[in-house]
Structures are given as structure tokens and as C-alpha cells.
Amino acid sequence: MYELIKKDGRAKRGRFHTVHGTIETPVFMNVGTAAAIKGAVSTDDLRGIKTQVELSNTYHLHVRPGDEVVKKMGGLHKFMNWDKPILTDSGGFQVFSLAGLRKIKEEGVHFNSHIDGRKIFMGPEESMQIQSNLASTIAMAFDECPSSVADRVYMRDSVARTTRWLKRCKAEMDRLNTLQDTINPHQMLFGINQGGIYEDIRIEHAKQIVDLDLDGYAVGGLAVGESHEEMYRILDAVVPYLPEQKPTYLMGVGTPINILEAVDRGVDFFDCVYPSRNGRHGHVYTNHGKLNLFNAKYELDDRPIEEGCQCPACRSYSRGYIRHLLKAKEMLGMRLCVLHNLYFYNTMMEEIRAAIEAGEYQVYKKKKIEGMTSGK
Fold first, then answer.
1. Residue 102: strand pairing partners
2. What structural domains does the chain harbor?
3. Rounded Cα distance, 251 and 256, in Å
4. pTM greater than 0.85 (yes/no)
5. If you ran DSSP here, which 8-state letter would residue 31 be given?
6. Is 174 a catalytic residue?
7. Cα–Cα distance between 141 and 353 in angstroms, integer?
């Protein structure tokens, strides 16, 4: 259940109650594709850096180790030792990103595993069954994720198919949640709005899926090649058609500035691989912009990544030492950068929530963006 606590303009401060605990929103979900955050980050680490929600990938866990294995191990929470909410994506994005390996039909998608080439079929029912085996808190509907530059005719047909698939997802999840051997009979379902950069198709689709009265709604198919301005234009157009009293999730976004702009447009759930991926390459986020710790100028820098930051890296280590670890290809260097970046994102979300509650979101957003783009 979603509880809207405060609005500041279109920005929402909410609370989402789940069987695995309450999520304070706006929230950034930390991405652990194969049931682990890349960069040697444990679930104990996640607790220490203010993580509220972990996100895992349905397709990757289906391929390896297999969702049946995870079910036999007691579900994803028990498997990875995480007692807070988990969201699983539907596998749709991965299936559609394997463009050369797949064939779409009305019943679902036939494709080849990227690991061993074996033939796999996934449709709405299969995606729901896999996610039920994983026993995540929130399951995402299986949708087609068309290219953002697909033509209007293809986009319309694709979105109509996604709507038909969503109805099948809902029916199958309702069925699975009644079975005796279902690990999490309270699993929630979020639907996904598609339509590329066509405002009218997006709005029409939003109206259709809202009628299904789901637990939450995502905006998908953005951050896949279109400009930031196009993304903001689509959010301006479609978010007002999604229910204010339900969570709105912008999938795969994004940079800190993307998040600040999307919160301003009524979005309250986010996920992105940027903080962990950039961290593994020595790129770290600060309130004064992004630093590349591989740069020679940090060789003798005895300051933390960011003064005043309370993350495990900044509390104990200098930029110079972390740079040395990265240059020496020591895993600890990657790990510290990932921990810092996730802490930075999670702390920014705390600040966002406080700013909305105080009715000062515009002031906060302006100051935060100015700091990050100042290049100091």
C-alpha cells in the first residue's frame, strides 16, 4: 500500500508498505543483477550504506543458477541474506536487448541464452512463474521494450501487445499467489507504460493500464538512446495520467541530475547501474561533480573522496590510496568506489525526501545541480 505524505509541486514524498518492510520514497533501488551488487558488495554492506530496496534480474537468475534452484533455497531473500524489499524486473529488457537471438510472437518470445545458446521461451506466464519462484517483493510485468526510435505503426502494435501481456501477467500472478507452495503469496505487480517518444501513444497506454488497478506503475523504454530533454518531455506528458496514490517508477534512470529532474515530475522509484558500473572504473560521484580517481592529480591526495561523507571509503581511506588500489587492479579499490557511489545516491534520496517534506524541493534541486555542475 502506498501512502502519499507530502507534495511539493509535482514532487511526491511517500511511503510504500510491503510484506518485507516499508519503503520511504523517493527511493533509489541498488542494482544486484545476479543477486549481488557488482564490486564485491555484500548484503551486510548494503545495510550499512542505507539501501532500502535491492533489484535483481529475472532473466539472469533464470539462466543461472535457475529460478527453481532459488526456490529450493527458500527464495531470493533467504538465498542472498537480505530481509528488506527486493524488486525483480521481468526479463523483458534483457530479452529485447538480445535482438539477434530472439523472435517475438503473441504467446511470448523465443530466444537463445547468452551463456550457452540453449533455446528459451519466455512469455507473461513464464515471467510471473520465474518471479514467483524468486519470491521477490515486487514483480514487474513482462512487456516488449521496443527501440525508442521505432516508427509509429510498430510502436502502436507493440504497446497493444504489451497491454495484452499485462492482463495475462495479472491473471497469472493472482493464480500463483493462491498456491500453497508459493513462498511469497503477497507478491506485488507493477505494470509498465511504453510508447517510446510518442506522447499520444504513451498517454493512451497509461489510461488503459491504470484501469487494471495494479500495485504500481513504471515508465519503461526511456534512457535507451533518446536525449535527456526528450525523456523529460515524455515524463511531463505521461506521469499526470498515472495514479498519484500509487508508486511511479522510472526504469533504468539514471544520473543524479536525471533523478532530481524526474522527482520534480512526480517519479518516486529509480534504478540504474551507473553508480556501481562507474565505481568499478574509478569514477566517483560527489556534490561537486564526478571525479576520475585514475587521474594523476590524485596520486598524493590525502583527502577522502568527499569531505564529510560517512561512507566506508571516505571514513577510512584517501583518494591517493584508492587510486593506488585501482591502478594495481586490487579489488578493494573497485569495492570502495562502488560503496561510495551507492552511499552518495542513497544519501541524495534522503536529502530529496527531507526537502520535499520541508516544502523546499526547488531550492534543494537548484543548489544540488549547481554544485554538481560547478566543476570545482
1. 111
2. 1-270 (3.20.20.105), 280-372 (no CATH)
3. 14
4. yes
5. E
6. no
7. 27
